[in-house]
Write a structure and sequence with these properties.
2 helices; alpha+beta; 8-stranded mixed beta sheet; Immunoglobulin-like; about 280 residues
Length: about 280
């Protein structure tokens, strides 16, 4: 009797485990995109997108709580929790001066998404080595050198850097090359770039999607552009503006007047028809 009882308990346990495992297998696999960026103002930015793969493509998971952390082999710091937006993105800003755990400038950033009733749990991490990107300008020759150094101030060679000029809605690329043995790459800035009223332009130095360094950006204002004054002229009346052209207004009013004349004339004729006695 006892052996039968034990057998029943074992079968129940197996069925429960199988049911739980089957439920877990029915959950969708969570995927993610994890990025690091060192902003031009010295802040650091962690960006993570949580999404799932569906028949219609990749769909972001809104309202997902993502936990960020920074760690080394000997220390771990919880950076905070962020809820994803409608596209599945979560952003965390690390203020300039915040001391992250690091060994030789290297920090491991991690993210954790606990999942929900329909999506599996997800963890991911990336190793980032902190570097400094700076400008070395030659005012006379109108050249801008981008300099990459590590946490100890030593030059970092073979790093691809880009130089661009900030425009109103985008960046105007100047060039992209790898740094030499001194951690430097020099670019000539064209002299015909339009600036503001005083000729100021903003140079932008970029390390983009580097496996070791992530994304790094710096900016520097220089007076190397052509002075340019932007003025907004009074918008003329056109078909695509809120104010219709004058000729169209006259035509519309004329049509209304003609229609009104015929309407009242027809009404007058109806009134003048003699009534049968």
């Amino acid at each position: 009797m006892k052996s039968s009882y034990k057998l029943v308990l074992v079968l129940v346990g197996v069925l429960l485990i199988a049911g739980i495992d089957s439920f877990a297998q029915n959950k969708e696999k969570a995927r993610n995109k994890f990025e690091y960026e060192k902003l031009y103002n010295g802040n650091k930015k962690l960006s993570a997108r949580i999404f799932v793969k569906t028949n219609s493509g990749l769909v972001g998971v809104p309202g997902a709580e993502v936990s960020f952390a920074a760690e080394t082999d000997s220390a771990k710091v919880k950076l905070g929790k962020v809820t994803t937006d409608e596209d599945g993105w979560a952003y965390l800003i690390i203020e300039k001066g915040y001391e992250l755990p690091q060994i030789d400038g290297k920090t491991t950033f991690g993210l954790t998404y606990a999942g929900n009733d329909s999506i599996k749990r997800l963890t991911d991490d990336m190793d980032i080595t902190d570097v400094n990107l700076s400008f070395k300008l030659d005012e006379e020759g109108k050249t801008a050198a981008l300099v990459v150094t590590d946490f100890a101030g030593q030059p970092v060679d073979r790093t691809k850097v880009k130089l661009a000029v900030k425009r109103l809605y985008s960046l105007l690329p100047i060039g992209d090359e790898r740094t030499d043995s001194t951690g430097m790459m020099t670019f000539e800035v064209p002299e015909d770039i339009p600036g503001d009223a005083e000729g100021n332009i903003t140079l932008v130095g970029i390390i983009e999607r580097d496996r070791k360094f992530g994304n790094v950006e710096i900016r520097q204002d220089v007076n190397w552009g052509i002075p340019n004054t932007y003025s907004v002229s009074e918008e003329k009346r056109n078909l695509w503006t809120q104010s219709a052209p004058t000729w169209m207004q006259v035509m519309v009013f004329g049509v209304f007047i003609v229609v009104a004349v015929f309407f009242f004339y027809a009404l007058y004729q109806v009134v003048m028809i003699p009534k049968d006695r």
